[in-house]
Each structure stands twice: as C-alpha cells, then as structure tokens.
Fold:
Amino acid sequence: MRNTIITTACLALLYSGTAISDSKIGRYTTSDSGATFVQQNLLATEVKIDFPSQVETIKQAMDLLLARSGYRLSEIDLDPHINYLFDQPLPDVHRHVGPMTLREALQTLAGQVWVLDINPLARTVSFHLSDEQFRKLAHGGVKNKPVLFFEANNASWGCDKPHPIHHKLPIYFAPNSFRLDYRDHQKIDLLIKKAKAEDLGIVIKSYTDPSGPTEMHVTMSKARGDAIVSYLKDQGVGPKVVANEALGATHPDLDQPYSLQRVSEISLVSNECTVHVPLWAVEANSTLEEAVFKWVSQSETYKNLVYEVRNQAGFKVNVILNSELVFEGSIQDAMRDLIRNLRSRPEIASMKATFYQGDKTILLEGVVNTELGDKK
Structure:
C-alpha cells in the first residue's frame, strides 16, 4: 500500500466529489461535463495537515488551513469575544488534522461553543458564540444593571459636562443578535464622514427589549455597542468614541414595539467644556489602591471603589506607583491615562476600569505578573 507523505505545513487537498465518468461506445468515447461537487462547494474539500511548530495560535492554524482554499478569515462584523478563540494556543491534539472536510476542520479547531459563519459572497468565514455559551457568559459576566464602559485609548474630552448632540443615528438589531449588516455599515460610514469633517465625538447608547432572561440584557446591549465600536475602529475613528453605554432593557420609551427597543443610538457630540478642568494627583511611592481611593473621595460623580487587582496566583496586590503623576480632565480621563501609564510597565499583564453609574461605583480590576506589595 502506498504511503501518503504529508510535508510539514503542506495541505493535502483530497477531492471527495463524484469523479467525471468516461464511457466508450463503439469507436467513440463520451465524457460527462460539469463541475464536481467539491468545485462547487469549496468548504467540502477534504484536507489533511500537520501544523508546524511555528503555528502557535488557533488563528494562525486557521489562516494556514484556509490558504489557497478560496476562503479567508473575515476581518469585519466579528464577534466581540472572538479573540478568546483566536488567541488560544493550538492544542497538541490539533497539530494533526484530517482527513476531513475543510468545514469540519475549522469547526474542530474552534470547538463546539463556537458556530461557524460562512459568507459565500465575500468567501470569508468567522465564528460567533453559541446561544448556550452566550447565556453562560451572561450569567458569569456583566452585572445586570446599566453600565458605562470606557476604552483606555479614548481621547480626553476634558470634563463631565454633557456634550451637545448634533446628530443621532439608530441602528436596529434582530432578536438575540448584535450583527451589523452592510446597510448598517453604509449608515455608519455617512456618520463617520460628518464626525471627521466637523471634529465631533461619538457616544453610543445600546438597549435590548425586555424579553428573555434579565441577566442577558446588559450583556447583549454591550455586545451591540462593542460591535459598533469595533467597526468604528476599523474605519480609523476609535479615539473619537467618547462613551459606549450598555443600558440593557431600559429604553426611554418602553411602550414602543420590541423591534424599536433593540437599538443602538449613535450620537455625534461636540466638546464645549468651559468649566475648570480638575487635576488628579498621584503621590510618589503611594499604592494604586490608595491613589484611586483618594480620587473617588474627591469625585462628585463616583463615590465607591471596588479594587480587584491580583497577581497571577490570585492574591490581591497593591501596585507601587514610584513617581509623582498628575492627570487632568474628568476622573474617567484620569483613570484612562493612569491605566495607559501602568500598561507600559512590564509587570502589568492587564488593567481596566469600569464605571457603574447606578450606584456611583468604579471597579478597578487587573492582573500583574509579579507579586508587588503585601498580600491582603
């Protein structure tokens, strides 16, 4: 029996469609014409691959798997949680895949909690979380109350004064969906042009209808806002996003049909702050918890601090701030700048702040690679 040798990083594409048959009648040979099943269904191509050691993540493996297949990974309309999949290390058991169809190979690498999305028009593939996994994420994720999320790289807009609204665009969603379609992209593109031309900021408020499990309302509204933020960043306007609010089932007009409550409102706002810009100071050799607690005590908007910074072993730690620092703007601006400053330090693995408006609480959480300060 002839052995099949698969060279490292080389795909063996084995066509499983019905072969073209030949038949001989007298002196003449006839041949059936037409495309094979595999030629018409590219993801049905049979593949067998040994991934080389240079392939370290799931995304790298999928890119190699799709090479020369006619399909590629999508770069738009991505599930907000897709990096949980793409950044995962490739398991050893998946270093040898096949023989199986290309569709089966992609699903095998992703796992059963991810659903394969196929766009035959653009010939792209991606994944979104299954409904069951999304519900589990909702149970263990965002608290079920309106919450305001800020990204660390947002531009500083100086103060907490309400920004005048110049234009508002509603984007409506299907039930249990945070997907944007090409018509949504066209509407948002027009808004982007106006924002750039007039140097306006962008505020996003996202809602759900009141149906379904209440614990999913904020999680779904956040996913809708994140999908818009992701598209805006792809278009190069990330720093213009002033705020991204996940408001759950708290639409101002609950008497409207549910189809109108499943919406993200994108507003263009101007920065007309003329009030005094406050300063937020960090004393040299103070701890992160001490500095932020002091800021919260000085804030007129937020009064509570939840400090959840831990090391890799799970112990609560106090990061030492070695030098004196001064930030200006709102407390949100100061927190963003402080986090940006901390992220430049090699021992910091991750850090983020979440601002809960309902009970005026700031949640500061993160992970450090080395244990600093005393265990608490």
